[in-house]
Design goal:
Layout lengths: L1 H17 L15 H6 L1 H7 L3 E13 L2 E7 L4 E7 H4 L1 H10 L5 E10 L5 E12 L15 H6 L1 H7 L1 H23 L3 E2 L5 E2 L11 E4 L4 E5 L4 H9 L4 E9 L11 E10 L3 H20 L19 E4 L2 E4 L6 E3 H9 L9 H10 L10 H11 L9 E4 L11 E2 L2 E5 L1 E6 L2 E2 L2 E4 L4 H16 L10 H8 L5 E7 L1 H7 L3 H4 L8
Parallel strand pairs: 3-5, 6-10, 14-15
Antiparallel strand pairs: 1-2, 1-4, 2-3, 4-5, 7-9, 8-9, 10-11, 11-21, 12-13, 15-18, 16-17, 18-19, 18-20, 20-21
Helix pairs in contact: 7-8, 8-10, 12-13, 14-15
């Protein structure tokens, strides 16, 4: 059946060519996009100016000697009116017999109002720009399966305006981040994707081979350690937005490759970082939620009130309020009865996990067990945006220890909707402490924890030259997915799928 349809389309392609028209020309003419033509409709109609429009055919209704067609470009739809009288008998017959939904065409003509008062272009000339030879899914009976839509994202974009809008908003998301940091004096840099030693996160890396050096390299799992080397070198405020790769499970919140941002600011403490990132989060929400009528940086566009509310899995999230501070140890004790400020063993934590029917891997050490219990208890209660502070040292190998609480670190996460949306630290800059923590991580790796961090001797050496006190922050496109109430996979334009 599909082969028959494709053969029919190939026959129409041949009609185009035998009719003396190129089916895939190099050049086209376009004086306005469809949205501009509609916006300037009265002015253009009054001037009787002939204009050129282009777009993909979305509907085609031949009716004897006339035909109504809708075309769509990246900005909007326009109705075309073709008739034998205006385009000529041969060109009209060629259009009716060969043009169909999915084709890209160019149309020249004057704007006018139909009897139904629809803004339209009365076509005097038309030209094929690209002939489709494969059946286009229909808007109502086409691709509905999410996996198929992700696998063939171009069809999803073609058929679903909301998908196109999603990725326009994603661009707003990253542009807001970039502009906010640049306006606050941060320097954007690009660090290596291939590393001798991956670090900066608890994740299993991908391995590749570098032929020119005849060495195995790792795809980076974080941006952290190269950026902190730049602080050692004297740059004070740096950031990168780039791809990272983690060879881990795939679910609503996790992908193997994704866009990530980290910034580091010398001489900042945790409180300054909290004040700064709360402002940044609110700016991101404001711009993404109101992207339809907002120019980036404009606090109130065209009189529209700026919404600061999003929805996530049935919960209404209000970003306009000040973010409260929630203490990790206090909430952990409330939910589990375990006081992390005292002596706690792995066995204590596993016993509590068994009691609460929480699953864990047998090889989990102290930090991994604390994190597992936290995610299944404390985190489930955190719905509105808040700062989670005072994480255990055991789950934060790169954070600076809190001098007032030896078992805590100077770290926060912004948590909302039962999920962490960022990670932030007063950065560890004691080279001896850092080396000891790497050694503890290596012991965890040897015990079977594939996500524990590797020893990075070069990074330790860099710290030995002295790194200033600093604040570091990182987040990914997970926050965008959260704002849009979608899985991360849905918000990646070409996610990894099984072949």
């Amino acid at each position: 059946m599909r082969e028959d349809i494709m053969q029919t389309k190939l026959d129409k392609l041949e009609k185009i060519r035998s009719g003396g028209m190129e089916a895939y020309p190099e050049k086209c003419e376009r004086t306005f996009d469809n949205a501009e033509a509609l916006e300037k409709f009265e002015e253009l109609r009054a001037s009787e100016q002939e204009i050129y429009l282009v777009g993909r055919v979305k509907s085609n209704r031949p009716m004897g000697n006339a035909c109504f067609t809708h075309i769509e470009d990246g900005f909007g739809k326009m109705q075309l009116f073709l008739s034998k009288q205006n385009v000529g008998d041969e060109k009209y017959k060629l259009f009716v017999k060969s043009v169909e939904n999915g084709d890209f065409i160019q149309a020249k003509g004057k704007l006018f109002l139909t009897k139904q008062d629809e803004k339209s272009l009365q076509v005097s000339e038309w030209k094929m720009l690209s002939k489709n030879i494969r059946p286009i899914p229909t808007e109502y009976y086409g691709l509905k399966d999410e996996e198929a839509l992700l696998r063939k994202r171009y069809l999803d974009l073609m058929m679903n305006p909301e998908t196109r809008e999603l990725f326009v908003k994603k661009n707003v998301y990253w542009q807001t981040v970039r502009n906010f940091l640049a306006q606050n004096g941060f320097l954007e840099v690009q660090c290596p994707v291939l590393e001798h030693t991956p670090g900066g996160a608890d994740a299993e890396p991908f391995v590749t081979h570098y032929n020119a050096l005849d060495q195995d390299f790792y795809l980076r799992i974080s941006l952290e350690l190269p950026l902190k080397r730049l602080l050692v070198g004297g740059l004070e405020k740096v950031f990168e937005i780039g791809r990272v790769f983690r060879n881990e499970g795939m679910d609503r919140d996790h992908l193997q490759e994704f866009d990530h941002m980290e910034f580091y600011a010398a001489y900042w403490d945790l409180q300054k970082g909290m004040d700064f990132t709360e402002k940044m989060f609110k700016e991101i929400v404001r711009n993404v939620v109101n992207a339809d009528h907002l120019d980036i940086g404009c606090p109130n566009a065209n009189g529209h009130p700026m919404s600061m509310v999003t929805e996530f899995e049935g919960e209404i999230i209000n970003w306009s309020q000040d973010f409260p501070v929630v203490d990790y140890f206090t909430e952990f004790k409330k939910e589990t009865g375990i006081d992390l400020s005292g002596e706690v063993t792995v066995e204590d934590l596993k016993k509590k996990a068994d009691e609460l029917k929480i699953k864990y891997e047998p090889g989990y050490g102290l930090g991994r067990m604390i994190d597992t219990l936290y995610k299944k208890t404390v985190r489930q209660r955190l719905i509105q945006p808040c700062f989670l502070v005072g994480h255990p040292l055991a789950v934060s190998p790169l954070a600076k220890a809190d001098p007032a609480h030896p078992k805590k670190v100077l770290r926060f996460q912004i948590v909302a909707g039962r999920g962490e949306l960022c990670n932030a630290f007063s950065e560890l800059n004691d080279p001896i402490d850092q080396k000891n923590r790497f050694l503890e991580q290596m012991a965890a790796r040897e015990s079977g924890d594939k996500e524990a961090q590797m020893m990075d001797e070069d990074f330790v050496e860099a710290l030995e030259y002295a790194m200033p006190p600093a604040f570091g922050f990182g987040f990914s496109e997970r926050f965008f997915a959260f704002i849009m109430n979608k899985s991360v996979r849905e918000t990646v334009i070409f996610p990894s799928v099984r072949k």
